[in-house]
User: Fold this.
Amino acid sequence: MPIRPVNVMLSLAALGSVLMSGCNVASTVAYITTPNPVMEAQYELKNESTVIFVDDRRSQISPVRLRRTIGDVASEGLLEEEVVSDVISPRDATAAARQLDRGAKPAAISTVGRMVGADQVIYVEVIQFNLTSSDGYTPDPYASCRVRVVDLVEKKRKFPDPEESPAHFVEVRLPGERSLSMNESRVRQELGERLATETGLQIARLFYDHEVAAIGANLLYRDK
Assistant:
C-alpha cells in the first residue's frame, strides 16, 4: 500500500527534530544505518571433491564429539555458501588417519585425502581448545588452529602460499561470562558446543566473503 504524503512529511519532520536535538543522537542514527564491513575470502577453493581434516592428535579437544562439531559445521558452511558442491564427511578423514598412522609418525595429509577420495584437503591442525583461563575456573572460551589447503591433483599446498607462511592461523575467543559456574557439566557442555560451532564457522568463512561486526568483534586472523 502506498505511503500517504502526509505520513512522509511527518516522518521527515520527526527525522529533522532528531538531527537537531544533538550530535550524539545524530551519531547514533549514522551508526545504525552504516552497514557491516565485508571480509573477503582468504582463498578461493576449487569446486572439487573436498574434505576437512580436523587433526587433534594432541587431544586438545574434549570431549571428542566437539572435534566432529568443528568439522561438520565447517563442511555445512561450505555447502550452504555453494563454495564447493561435494564435501566428504570429516569423520571419514579422521577414521582414515587413525588407520594410516604408524606409531609416532602420523600419516601424510595427502595420503589421508586420497584414501577418502578427495581432490583437495582443508587441513585443520588444532593448537588450543580451552573453556577456562589458566586458573581452571574463570570462563575464557578460546580456540586456535592452523589451516592449510592441499591440492591433491596438483600435488602441492595452495593456501597459504608456502613462500609466505607455513599456515594460516585462526583464533576464536568467545565473550567470557564470569557468572557461569564451570563446575556444572551442563554449563561446560554448552560452552564447549558454542566454541566448537564458532570455530567451525570461522574456518568455513576463510573461503567465502562475509560480513563482520563493525564493533566488538572477537575473532582474529593472521598468518603464522
About this structure: Residues 1-34 form one domain. Strands lie at 38-39, 50-55, 87-88, 120-132, 139-151, 156-159, 168-173, 210-211, 219-223. The first strand starts at residue 38 and ends at 39. Residues 185-205 form the longest helix (21 residues).
